[in-house]
Amino acid sequence: MSAGPRPLAPDPRERPIGVFDSGVGGLTVLHELLVMLPQEDFIYLGDTARFPYGERSPAELERFAVELAEELLKRRAKLLVVACNAATSAALPALRRRMLETTLGVDVLGVVRPEALRAVAATRNGRIGLLATPTTVASRAYEDAVSTIDPHVSLYPVACPGLAAIIQEGREFDGDTVALVREACAPLREADVDTVILGCTHYPLIGRMLQRILGPRVMLVASGAALARQVEHALSARNLRNPNAREGDYRFLCTGDAEAFHALGTRFLQMPLGPIEHVRVGPAAVDDLEGATG
């Protein structure tokens, strides 16, 4: 945790890893990154002003993803992690093309393929469930990933509209929440899946509820640990591992209310957050610039 930006590092290996999400859900991914890569510095950007992403169009998500990535590139990120299932599903190919056009040639990693790989490796009966937002389900990104890894494995997707927003609000879960989750899980129980992909970074927060409803023999697959391993491999392949032995820093940006982000974020990250910097991206940032120079 850092109280302010570190000086720009001349050695590219000492630059931070950029992580972005639609809100605070991606902090569940950042948690795993901090644990597995303690010597690295991280910058996390939560687009809370435009949350939720789960029912946005692919064109909107592509534009949002590029805007957030460019904000992190301004801060000299050496690698980008899309800690949002909806943005990964809709925008990852376009975002990778855009980043390759930059002089930095920054790699971009998303959550879909690491989760799919882990789920295919875990299933015993070849029947995998997916709980995700409507946009992620409609993209068929998980179907494509799973069938590419193993065409003999079947995927059973279930869209969960509104669930991510309920979790992000931070309210105490009530009977209506349990009923919503139970309804989402019903098709997966009927399909006799033995593995379920949590296709939204908010869903690990209700992992115990899901496990109770689905049963103890069903394995839940979240994106954090699998993606952290992929990040570790990517850094090694590009010779970008931070050579310092010190514990790295992490800091936070958000496009919405910084106090609200801080209040919610601790629950998701399970570590101290420190100060939150408010930023404006995309058209909002252009409006600010024109107002300052007009």
Question: Which descriptors would you attach to this protein?
Answer:
6-stranded parallel beta sheet; Rossmann fold; 47% helix; 10 strands; 294 residues
User: Approximately how much helix is present in the residues?
Assistant: 40-55%
Please summarize the sheet with the most strands: 6 strands, parallel
Mean pLDDT: 91
CATH architecture identity of the largest domain? 3-Layer(aba) Sandwich
DSSP strand tally: 10
Structural class: alpha/beta
> How many domains, in number, for the residues?
2
Strand order of the largest sheet: 4-3-1-2-9-10
Name the overall outline: globular
CATH hierarchy class name of the largest domain: Alpha Beta
Whole-angstrom Rg: 19 Å
N- to C-terminal separation? Answer: 37 Å
Explain what you see.
This protein has 294 residues and is of the alpha/beta class. The protein has 2 domains: 12-110 and 225-293, Rossmann fold; 113-223, Rossmann fold. The protein is 47% helix and 16% strand. Helix 2 packs across helix 3 and helix 4 packs across helix 10 (223-237). The chain is globular.
